[in-house]
Amino acid sequence: MDGFFDNLDSWVKRQNTVREMFKRAEQNYEELDRLALITLSRLAFQHMEKTIEAFDQWLKDPMITSHMPREMLVELWSRLRVILYELIELDIDHTSKFSEHLKKLAAENAINPLFAFEKEEKEGRRGVSPTI
Description:
Elements: H1 2-25, H2 34-60, H3 62-67, H4 70-107, H5 119-123
């Protein structure tokens, strides 16, 4: 059992370290260039994916599911639902704004010609799909 506790303590310690690294990396994020912002966002998504996958595995573990008190599960859902709806809103808002931005660029004939291909060409290719 000691190894199990050590793993839990180690996970919490790593998450605290990652949190502090992100806090340092995002200082003055309003002033970062586009590449730095893309990198920061991608690293954040990668870490969220890793954390979500680990959380999902956690909730599949019979040791956890057998001993998790209902109150902790209610608290988990209470916090998780806020994150879920915030992520959905982020996705809707960001995608909508970018769509409008691209439409404006297209109307101004300002899209990079490397990305402005005809519909016929696009039909034979796999397009960008929504997140769901």
